[in-house]
């Protein structure tokens, strides 16, 4: 296959306003066509993936149905690290327009390159997502994600401009000024992490600004860390802001997908990405509704190929047509990370489950921490959680009774017992980026 023939395939799917409600059978055919093209392109132009396919004994011509995607070898973050900085790229440098890099907190950073089409598809994907929650050109959207090498800030920035809304490129930090901007520029939506939005709410209250009454902020485009429905309810109750669950990763481009206004799962645009759920241990595909690790194949990437990339996120797939009319598959709320999952006395515990359980108690604030250590062969988990200012008391009997209720509920949710420590409001660390909830002191 020549590169001209491949390019021809892309013309077919230039922006089409009806693509989001395309009948499912047609979407499946489009995905298969794109998967075949992408597989050919990687085999021809990506020495890394060519070698990977040869080692697995699979040729592009082996992809005859969508289910054949499982014949292709997985990619992991390690592949991107090993290929640092650009060994995995499959285009000429002259075709690149931008680089982004991951934070590199756990080793070498990973570098992602973008061609013009890669940037265009990224903005397209996120613009569709924001449109699906009712945002449009009359909105003023503040981007409180980091600008720079991190893909969050610029990703939202260009997608907002593509949609025709006004962008406020606030980036992170200087929270008081961010709150003034929200009020003075009549900002209607904010892109940030959920924990930063809650922090912003706390700071606003201290400044005597009621987000609900004094501002027009109504939608939060939230992602980059796991969070629960209870946290969403709390954001709505305290700030009047509807929290929209967004999804993406720097390796895929950046933030790409979100829930629609039905809020029944995150739409993964099928013309851009093919999503699978697999058993995290065996790598075997799982069916709709079965909980496992999300694996994504980007169907139109030009610079950095992403094929059967193991996201490390635990979720379930919903293949039914959404009430909003969109036919593209949905993933449910991320329930944890394969690598964030902690095992306590043989039981899998996700910080998101702990959060969900804690949020049932109106006396508790938003911040918590899990501290795990091991005495002898026995794992112990301590849950440290902040009380709300109004629930703070020196009445030991009351506090003990509350601790007991929290502990019982945790045991019911997690099937493992945990000690609970109630701490004063404002004492646990705050995070402007991803919240780090787990302190694991065990030696492995
Ligand atoms: Zn929908």
Quick structural summary:
With 444 residues, the chain is α/β, with parallel strands linked by helices.
- At the first level of CATH, the class of the largest domain is Alpha Beta
Runs with pLDDT <50, length 5+?
1-15
In percent, how much strand structure appears in the residues?
15-25%
Using the CA coordinates, give the radius of gyration: 23 Å
Q: SS-based structural class?
A: alpha/beta
Question: How many E-type strands?
Answer: 21
Strand order of the largest sheet: 4-3-5-6-7-8-9-14-13
CATH superfamily of the largest domain: ANL, N-terminal domain
The 3D shape can be described as globular
Give the helices and strands, then pairings:
Blueprint: H1 3-11, H2 24-45, H3 47-56, H4 77-82, E1 96-101, E2 111-115, H5 116-131, E3 140-143, H6 151-163, E4 166-168, H7 175-184, E5 189-192, H8 194-206, H9 211-214, E6 219-222, H10 229-239, E7 242-249, E8 254-259, E9 266-267, E10 273-278, E11 292-298, E12 309-315, E13 317-318, E14 330-331, E15 336-337, E16 342-344, E17 347-349, H11 351-358, E18 364-375, E19 378-387, H12 396-414, E20 419-423, E21 438-440
Parallel strand pairs: 3-4, 3-5, 5-6, 6-7, 18-21, 19-20
Antiparallel strand pairs: 1-2, 7-8, 8-9, 9-14, 10-11, 11-12, 12-15, 13-14, 16-17, 18-19
Bound molecules: zinc ion.
